[in-house]
C-alpha cells in the first residue's frame, strides 16, 4: 500500500472484477488484517451496459466472500443516455458508491486507479484544454467528485503503481480477474488513449513521464493557491454572507492568481464546493480589472456590483459580492438556484477540470 497522509476508516473498496480493483481489494484486506482494522466492505457496481455485467458483479461478491469480506452489488437502474455515456456512467457509479458509504458511516472509499490511469487522465484533460488544476490529474486522497458527500474521502493508494505489477501480483496468487469488454469499446475516449499507448510511448510520452509532469503542475497549483489565499485574507472582507473585495488590488495580481482568488470569493459567498467554469470566469474577471463591470454581473449564484458609498471598505475600489436572490418558478414557487436546476432536470454542478 502506498504511503498516504491518512487512511480514512471504516472503508469500502470499489471492485469491478478487473485486475486493478481486485488487487487493491486483496491488498487492502491484508493491510487491515495486519493493522487490526475492521475489514473493508466490497462494493461492486452493476452498470448494466453490456451483457454479463450482473454475472461479473456476482462473481466479485463470491470472491469477496471467499476472503471473508462483506460485499454488496449496487445496480444502476433506469435508462442510460446515449450521449456522453462515459461521463454518465462515471457519475452514476460515484453516486451509487457515495450514497452507500454515507448511509453506512463509511469514511473512505478506496478505488484502484493506477499510474496509467493517472497518465490517461492527464491526456484526457489536456485534450479538453484544462487549466493547471485539471492537469494536476488525480490526487491520492480527496473528496468524492460530486456534491453532497462531505465527510467521505476518495482514496487512490495505487497511483504510483503500474498495471503490470498488479497483474503480476494476482498471477502469483493464482487469482483470476475479469476483462471488461467495455475496455475495448472505442466509443470511450479513455479506451482510445489506451489503444494509442504504443504510439505515444514510441514518441517519448511514457506514462511515468506524464505522471512526473502532473506532479510538477501539482506543486505549481499549490503555489498559486497560497498566493490567492493570501490575497483574499488581505484584500477581501466577509460579513453576513456577503463579501467586499478590492478591485484595484485584484487587477494588480498576476492573471492566474487573480482568477483563482476571484473564484475563491465566489465559492465562499455561494457556498458552492466547485469553481465556476473558466469560460465564464475569465470574461467576468476581465470586466472587473478593466473597470467595465457596469451596474453588475452574475456568476455561480453571486451578483457582483459596485458598493454604495456609505458601505465601502476599500474606497472607490470596493466591489460587492452577494448571493443572488431566489428565483421563482410557477410550478414550484420560490426556490434556490440549486433546487430550481434540479426541478428542471438540470444540474448545479460545474466541471472543475476547465
Radius of gyration: 23 Å
Largest beta-sheet characterization: 6 strands, mixed
Tally of separate helices: 13
**Unreliable stretches:** 328-354
Strand arrangement across the biggest beta sheet: 3-2-1-4-6-5
CATH C-level class of the largest domain is: Alpha Beta
Number of strands: 13
Helix fraction by DSSP (H/I, runs of at least 4): 40-55%
The coarse silhouette is elongated
CATH fold-level name of the largest domain: Rossmann fold
CATH level 4 superfamily of the largest domain? HUPs
Please render the helix and strand layout as text.
Layout: E1 11-14, H1 19-35, E2 41-46, H2 53-66, E3 71-75, H3 85-103, E4 108-110, H4 115-127, H5 132-135, E5 141-143, E6 153-155, H6 163-172, H7 189-195, H8 197-202, H9 207-235, E7 236-239, E8 242-246, H10 247-251, H11 255-270, H12 278-289, E9 297-299, E10 302-306, E11 318-323, E12 327-329, E13 333-335, H13 337-343
Parallel strand pairs: 1-2, 1-4, 2-3, 4-6
Antiparallel strand pairs: 5-6, 7-8, 8-11, 9-10, 10-11, 12-13
Explain this structure.
This protein is an alpha/beta fold. It has 2 domains: 11-205, HUPs (Rossmann fold); 222-343, no CATH class. Helices cover 45% and strands 15% of the residues. The chain has a 6-stranded mixed beta sheet, sandwiched between helices. A hairpin with a 2-residue loop joins strand 9 (297-299) and strand 10 (302-306). Helix 4 (115-127) crosses helix 9 (207-235) and helix 9 packs across helix 11. The longest helix is centred in the middle third of the chain and has 29 residues, at 207-235. It is elongated and about 75 Å long.
Amino acid at each position: 500500500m502506498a504511503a498516504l497522509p491518512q487512511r480514512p476508516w471504516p472503508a469500502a473498496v470499489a471492485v469491478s472484477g478487473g485486475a486493478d480493483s481486485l488487487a487493491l481489494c486483496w491488498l487492502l484486506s491484508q493491510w487491515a488484517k495486519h493493522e487490526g482494522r475492521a475489514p473493508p466492505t466490497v462494493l461492486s457496481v452493476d452498470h448494466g451496459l453490456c451483457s454479463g455485467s450482473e454475472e461479473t458483479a456476482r462473481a466479485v461478491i463470491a470472491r469477496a466472500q471467499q476472503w471473508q469480506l462483506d460485499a454488496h452489488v449496487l445496480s444502476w437502474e433506469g435508462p442510460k443516455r446515449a450521449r456522453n455515456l462515459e461521463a454518465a456512467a462515471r457519475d452514476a457509479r460515484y453516486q451509487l458508491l457515495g450514497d452507500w458509504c454515507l448511509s453506512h458511516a463509511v469514511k473512505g472509499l478506496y478505488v484502484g486507479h493506477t499510474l496509467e490511469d493517472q497518465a490517461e487522465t492527464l491526456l484526457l484533460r489536456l485534450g479538453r484544454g484544462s487549466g493547471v488544476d485539471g492537469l494536476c490529474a488525480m490526487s491520492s486522497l480527496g473528496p468524492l467528485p460530486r456534491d453532497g458527500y462531505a465527510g467521505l474521502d476518495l482514496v487512490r493508494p495505487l497511483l504510483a503503481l503500474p498495471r503490470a505489477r498488479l497483474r503480476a501480483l494476482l498471477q502469483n496468487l493464482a487469482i483470476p480477474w475479469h476483462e471488461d469488454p467495455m475496455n475495448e469499446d472505442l466509443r470511450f475516449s479513455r479506451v482510445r488513449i489506451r489503444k494509442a499507448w504504443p504510439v505515444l510511448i514510441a514518441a517519448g510520452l511514457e506514462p511515468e513521464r506524464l505522471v512526473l509532469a502532473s506532479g510538477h503542475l501539482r506543486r505549481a497549483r499549490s503555489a498559486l493557491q497560497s498566493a490567492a489565499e493570501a490575497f483574499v485574507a488581505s484584500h477581501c472582507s466577509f460579513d453576513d454572507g456577503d463579501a467586499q473585495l478590492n478591485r484595484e488590488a485584484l487587477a494588480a495580481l498576476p492573471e492566474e492568481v487573480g482568477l483563482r482568488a476571484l473564484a475563491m470569493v465566489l465559492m465562499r459567498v455561494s457556498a458552492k464546493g466547485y469553481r465556476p467554469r473558466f469560460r465564464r470566469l475569465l470574461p467576468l474577471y476581465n470586466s472587473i480589472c478593466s473597470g467595465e463591470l457596469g451596474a453588475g454581473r452574475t456568476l455561480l449564484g453571486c451578483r457582483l456590483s459596485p458598493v454604495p458609498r456609505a458601505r465601502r471598505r476599500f474606497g472607490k475600489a470596493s466591489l460587492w459580492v452577494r448571493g443572488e436572490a431566489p428565483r421563482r418558478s410557477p410550478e414550484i414557487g420560490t426556490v434556490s438556484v440549486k433546487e430550481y436546476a434540479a426541478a428542471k432536470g438540470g444540474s448545479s454542478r460545474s466541471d472543475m477540470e476547465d
